[in-house]
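Recap from last week: sequence in, structure out.
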Amino acid sequence: MLELRNLSKSYAGRPVLAALSHVFKAGEFVAIMGESGVGKSTLLNLIAGLDVPDTGEVLVDGQAMSALDDNAATRLRRTRMGFIFQAFHVLPHLTLRQNVALPLLLNREATGRADSMLDAVGLHGRGADFPAQLSGGEMQRVAIARALVHRPALLLADEPTGNLDPDTAASVLALLRAEIKATGAGAIMVTHSTAAAAMADHVLLLTRSGLQLR
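Predicted structure tokens:
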């Protein structure tokens, strides 16, 4: 499903990732842990094609991201990937229902699943509310619902439970895992939480020397 080949990335001359290679299989839920600044979020951005490696390749279903033009890369992200960002990126001028339905609209799919996803993350009956009415944890749940609503083949999650209390975090992680297993999707979750990582099939440790099974 996803292959990293000798990925390297530097910022302002400072190496962040160096010659990183790994294969992620479809249907696997993988947690990536590591010290702050080691390049975990950078890795997610490279996988998504939101950033470009200095050297190496990211291959999704055998297709090199570098071989895609901007339109093709956007289509691949829109149809095949789901994202949960630390900063949420919930659109303030849209209702919660509209925020969650956005991937469905972009893919020209029916939007009825948006309400059921809001229900699944504990926001039943809140579809007409706006983000300004939410706490940080509630906005995180909206972001999670939006990432899952179109049943992506690959889910990329950057600290998805960082703003949630332990009980809500546990229920959201259970939802993530259930959705992944039901659809056969792959998921890569960057986290500092050992409790979150425990929900994954495998835990990888990212260090300056690469990815290692923890």
